[in-house]
């Protein structure tokens, strides 16, 4: 496997892990949340450096439906992450405490909450649009295709995770945070941390499945259209 691709995979995996940890906020402590956020900022910069070729070619070539969706999602991820990071720096009491920032705390809190949750969703959708690439890498590492039975088991597992993700999304009242119906996140301190992460992994899986399904559908339509045009 090329070193650059390996570096991209490592950075993206680290960002996914940090994203899940950041959603735990009060459960891991404010200082830990800030340090993890600073780590996410560095990884976010690294991600864009490693993918500079894609950024450089954003205005070139033909825009298929999938490419339009990928580009739109990339812009939304960037907007949500910038909002989350800049507001986080403004509120910082540990990592960026040395910065001469005065006032604006109320605005920063108002921006930080929806940006964090929209960022979680957009990043999950972004990952879903690249899920074929992830599965391709896994297949190359295994050096063989999954059997028919294995594919059936994987599809059932994906459906179960998605259903759990819907339940977790509703149970955790994520809509309230996305649309600022409340300005505070409710954490159940009696819930084991492993169950909290299971909820958020399932929600991530739900949005990965949604984006993966939409992406594959658009690819099939594009392929059919090209066939019709060539006939």
Question: Structural class of the secondary structure composition?
Answer: mainly alpha
Kindly state the mean pLDDT as a whole number? 92
Number-wise, the strands total: 0
Instruction: Assign a percent range to the helix content.
Output: over 70%
- List the secondary-structure elements in sequence, H or E: HHHHHHHHH
For the largest beta-sheet, the strand count, sense and barrel status come to: none
Quickly count the helices.
9
Outline type: globular
N/C terminus separation: 38 Å
Describe the structure.
- This protein has 231 residues and is mostly helical.
- The chain has one domain (59-230).
- It is 77% helix and 0% strand.
- The chain has 9 helices and no strands.
- Helix 1 (3-23) runs antiparallel to helix 2 (30-50), helix 1 crosses helix 5 (105-129) and helix 7 (148-171) crosses helix 9 (193-230).
- The longest helix is centred in the last third of the chain and has 38 residues, at 193-230.
- It starts with a helix and ends with a helix.
- One of its GO terms (cellular component) is membrane.
- This is DUF4405 domain-containing protein.
């Amino acid at each position: 496997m090329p070193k650059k691709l390996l570096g991209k995979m490592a950075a993206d995996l680290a960002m996914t892990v940090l994203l899940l940890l950041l959603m735990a906020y009060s459960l891991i402590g404010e200082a830990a949340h800030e340090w993890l956020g600073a780590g996410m900022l560095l990884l976010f910069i690294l991600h864009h450096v490693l993918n500079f070729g894609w950024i450089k070619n954003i205005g070139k070539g033909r825009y298929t439906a999938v490419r339009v969706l990928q580009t739109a999602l990339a812009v939304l991820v960037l907007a949500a992450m910038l909002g989350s990071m800049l507001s986080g720096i403004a509120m910082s009491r540990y990592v960026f405490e040395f910065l001469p920032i005065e006032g604006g705390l109320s605005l920063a809190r108002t921006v930080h909450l929806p940006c964090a949750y929209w960022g979680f969703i957009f990043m999950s959708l972004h990952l879903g649009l690249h899920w074929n690439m992830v599965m391709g890498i896994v297949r190359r590492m295994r050096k063989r295709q999954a059997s028919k039975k294995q594919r059936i088991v994987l599809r059932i597992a994906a459906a179960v995770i998605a259903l759990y993700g819907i339940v977790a999304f509703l149970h955790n009242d994520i809509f309230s945070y996305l649309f600022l119906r409340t300005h505070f996140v409710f954490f159940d301190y009696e819930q084991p941390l492993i169950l909290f992460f299971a909820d958020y992994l399932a929600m991530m899986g739900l949005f990965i499945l949604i984006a993966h399904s939409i992406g594959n559908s658009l690819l099939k339509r594009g392929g059919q259209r090209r066939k019709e045009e060539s006939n």
